[in-house]
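Researcher: We're teaching a course module on how sequence relates to structure. For the next exercise, students receive a sequence and then see the predicted structure as tokens, so they can try to spot secondary structure elements on their own. Here is the exercise chain.
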Amino acid sequence: MTTRHDRTEKPDTMTYLPAITRRLAVAGLLASTAAAGAQAPRRRLPDTETTRAAGLSAWLTDPTSRYAHAVLGDAIEAGGFAVEQAGRQFHVTLPEEAVFEDRRVRLADIDGDGRPEAIVVKSYLRRGAALAVYRIGPDGITPLAESAPIGIPNRWLNPVGVADFTGDGRPLIAAVITPHIAGSLRLYRLEGGTLAEVARLDGVTNHIIGSRDLDLARITDIDGGGRPEIVLPALDRLSLTAVSFAGGRGRIVARVAVPRPIVRLEPMNGGAAVVHLQDRSTVTLALRRG
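Model: And here is the predicted structure for the students to work with:
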């Protein structure tokens, strides 16, 4: 399938489930450029999650309305994020040209040094979303790498997670680019100061536009073969698929149809998937290769 970016991602409440609105009076609250270092606490994004790993805690900060996309249910995004380690807080604050269009800071080791990096969706006001990775050191946070932005405003991506998806022993970041348009599942590898795309498969999704749920995809080993698959809906959400990137090529290895669009996917362990459908029913699906 060919990736297309030919319509604006805006919530359609007639088609999609309504999102829980996180409105906040933020007049005059615009993040400014600042160096990352130990600082006083900052105002949290209203619906940010706190993630924890290896003695670190991270969350999004500095609410701002300067990017009116509303892909997550409203027009309030983050102008920065904070990481706490050993009782000290360190902050990243974006310039006016970008926001963190996200609800969480993911903590995962992608450079092999045994310490987590911070992974977050960074959206440029004029160039759309990119994956951004920051190194967390003992004295502060520094930019490590970014993927290329999608290229135009109001285009978003939703990360899936980090794992050795291809079997070559190196961690890769999986994300769905424009999950409401083309639904392009892509893998990225750290190469110097960039995140380089190494594989893709189009026609799937891991988000419903306007929803605050970022977890419509799961990483699991569906058949006990020792290599993770990515389980997520097809783009129309009328089937659940398992995608393998073993050997570096993306392919659908299992697919189960459902009678109504999928709206939620429970955490998985193996090939049994519990999904919630748009008619409020719940079904259990067995994903098997072939």
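Model: If you want an answer key for the exercise: The chain has a mean pLDDT of 89. DSSP finds no helices and 20 strands in the chain.
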